[in-house]
């Protein structure tokens, strides 16, 4: 079947069919799959459709995935009080499932194919109903195969009066990475790549089992790259140029997108002088972490992964894959006389380890769209260092976990090898039944140890955990659902095991998760009718 791969794809359906035929590995069904017409009329139900949508990148229009409402709106943003009552209809020619990233919900509603449900077959509808415990910036995405790379993802803001009151204007910015190469071909290329000489390190390095001496130590011989720093004198995050290794990334993209638009044709958002503007930024990318530059606008960092933190200021921030960040900026009330027609404020996102950028532009007055769009830098002047703990170390939860004795400590040692592109948690490659076990009621601590020279954005399903230690330093850190573990870092997280189920814990880089860097957090005694990892040969876990 691999001979059918085309380096460029014009048909989402064709490439997806190839994928679906061999990917019954990870994920699983129930009797919940139904026609939408059988759903209850007692509550207001919203119809969501997983379908192909045209997308134009670098002058070429192709069909990509999307999750849209009947009117074409990307995603769905409910009021918290209304709860979640959606019917997801699969209009693709391949199966799918939709996961509500970061929300705490009943296990059967988690949307993970082959774990909490059967995939939604083409033409079928799955009804998701659950109360909304959280408010803020979340997102939804396919948890089937490599469909996130086909952009089967969308924003989900959970609104409340408090969320609405956070600024005069609010905008959602969803970031994705785009390649004209199919995700299946990308993964196959990674698996076929020759193992590199770790001494010279001239090629990107996904990681190795043991990497003694590979700690990234800045030296004068290293290239100048962009990184984030904390400006102690002014108590703010800033952009800096440092001599440091270029970040290791193992997929080269054709473009980065903000709200599905390239840097040449960005979203232009109208604001007024004096407005407070909340930017809810979602990293829905697959292999691209971001540095966010708010330029001349000083931003307040108000929340990460939908969870409030004690506010911090700056104009340069880090955002790892699958994370979200809420940044509030204030438009100056006195606009410069040199911009009598209005002012432009580019918000630039640069991909980690690349000069590719995307972004949006805030404008005031009568600035033309073309003038606004031209204000966004089309490429970065230099590449970047890897994401690090500069920002994470300073985040403090506004509502930390109550102090409690740790009942269970779970290790999660992250390793990998270029030999066939395999990734592991605790030396084990998913699919497996050898997963992490907890008991209801326990306070659980997880120790995430990254032994590779590449960062891994680790996501735990079922709501939030708290970051409690970074590289040996105890903190009352952010509440999150996705934590970036930088190269060679050790990060401890803690949470209360209060929601029985089988919850995936995995790297949110799909190429890593599909190559083994995935496990389950399984409550003792809990099974689902859908989870049969032993039935899937590991060599079929991806392609
Ligand atoms: Cu990873």
Blueprint of the fold:
Blueprint: H1 12-20, E1 33-34, E2 46-57, E3 60-69, E4 84-90, E5 98-101, E6 125-130, E7 136-142, E8 153-158, H2 161-164, E9 169-178, H3 183-192, E10 224-231, E11 236-243, E12 255-258, E13 267-270, E14 276-283, E15 290-293, E16 299-304, E17 307-314, E18 316-319, E19 324-330, E20 344-351, E21 357-363, H4 369-374, E22 408-417, E23 422-425, E24 436-438, E25 443-450, E26 456-460, E27 465-470, E28 473-474, E29 479-480, E30 482-485, E31 490-496, E32 502-507, H5 510-513, E33 518-523
Parallel strand pairs: 2-4, 9-14, 11-17, 13-21, 22-25, 24-33
Antiparallel strand pairs: 1-6, 2-3, 4-6, 5-7, 7-8, 9-12, 10-11, 14-19, 15-18, 15-20, 16-17, 16-19, 20-21, 22-23, 25-31, 26-30, 26-32, 27-28, 27-29, 27-31, 32-33
The structure holds copper (II) ion.
Short précis:
By secondary structure, the chain is mainly beta.
The top-level CATH class of the largest domain is: Mainly Beta
**CATH homologous superfamily of the largest domain, by name?**
Cupredoxins -  blue copper proteins
Q: Can you tell me the CATH architecture of the largest domain?
A: Sandwich
Number of separate helices: 5
Shape: globular
Q: Strand percentage, roughly?
A: 35-45%
Strand order of the largest sheet: 10-11-17-16-19-14-9-12
* Unreliable stretches: 1-39, 196-216, 538-543
């Amino acid at each position: 079947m691999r001979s059918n791969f085309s380096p460029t794809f014009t048909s989402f359906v064709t490439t997806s069919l190839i994928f679906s035929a061999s990917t019954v590995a990870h994920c699983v069904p129930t009797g919940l799959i139904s026609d939408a017409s059988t759903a209850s009329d007692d509550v207001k139900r919203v119809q969501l459709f997983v379908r192909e949508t045209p997308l134009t990148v670098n002058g070429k229009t192709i069909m990509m995935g999307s999750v849209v409402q009947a009117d074409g709106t990307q995603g769905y943003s409910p009021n918290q009080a209304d709860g979640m009552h959606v019917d997801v209809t699969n209009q693709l020619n391949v199966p799918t499932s939709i996961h509500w990233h970061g929300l705490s919900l009943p296990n059967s509603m988690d949307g993970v194919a082959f774990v909490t449900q059967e995939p939604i077959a083409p033409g079928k509808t799955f009804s998701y109903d659950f109360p909304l415990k959280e408010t803020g910036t979340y997102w939804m995405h396919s948890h089937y195969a490599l469909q996130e790379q086909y952009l089967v993802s969308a924003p989900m803001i959970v609104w409340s009066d408090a969320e609405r009151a956070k600024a005069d204007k609010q905008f959602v910015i969803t970031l994705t990475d785009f390649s004209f190469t199919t995700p299946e071909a990308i993964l196959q290329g990674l698996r076929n790549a020759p193992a590199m000489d770790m001494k010279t390190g001239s090629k990107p390095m996904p990681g190795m089992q043991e990497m003694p001496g590979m700690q990234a130590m800045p030296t004068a011989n290293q290239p100048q790259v962009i990184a984030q720093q904390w400006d102690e004198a002014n108590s703010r995050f800033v952009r800096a140029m440092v001599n440091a290794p270029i970040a290791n990334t193992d997929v080269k993209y054709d473009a980065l997108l903000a709200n599905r638009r390239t840097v040449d044709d960005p979203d232009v958002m109208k604001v007024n002088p004096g407005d407070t503007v909340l930017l809810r930024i979602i990293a829905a990318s697959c292999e691209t972490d971001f540095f966010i530059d708010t330029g001349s606008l000083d931003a307040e960092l108000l929340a990460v992964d939908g969870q409030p933190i004690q506010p911090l200021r700056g104009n340069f921030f880090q955002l790892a894959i699958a994370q979200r960040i809420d940044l509030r900026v204030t438009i100056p009330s006195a606009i410069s006389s040199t911009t009598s027609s209005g002012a432009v404020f580019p918000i630039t996102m640069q991909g980690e380890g690349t000069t590719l950028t995307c972004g949006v532009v805030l404008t005031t007055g009568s600035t033309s769209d073309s003038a606004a769009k031209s204000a966004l830098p089309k490429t970065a002047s230099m590449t970047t260092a890897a994401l690090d703990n500069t920002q994470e170390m300073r985040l403090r939860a506004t509502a930390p976990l109550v102090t409690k004795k740790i009942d269970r400590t779970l290790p999660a040692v992250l390793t990998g090898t270029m030999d066939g592109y395999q990734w592991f948690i605790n030396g084990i490659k998913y699919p497996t039944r050898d997963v992490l076990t907890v008991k209801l009621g326990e306070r659980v601590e997880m120790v995430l140890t990254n032994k590779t020279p590449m960062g891994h954005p680790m996501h735990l399903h079922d709501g939030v955990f708290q970051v409690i230690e970074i590289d040996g330093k105890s903190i009352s850190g952010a509440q999150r659902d996705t934590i970036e573990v930088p190269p060679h870092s050790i990060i401890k997280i803690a949470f209360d095991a209060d929601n029985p189920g089988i919850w995936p814990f995995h790297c949110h880089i799909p190429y890593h998760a599909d190559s083994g860097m995935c496990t389950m957090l399984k409550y003792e005694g809990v099974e689902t009718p859908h989870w049969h990892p032993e039935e899937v040969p590991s060599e079929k876990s991806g392609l």
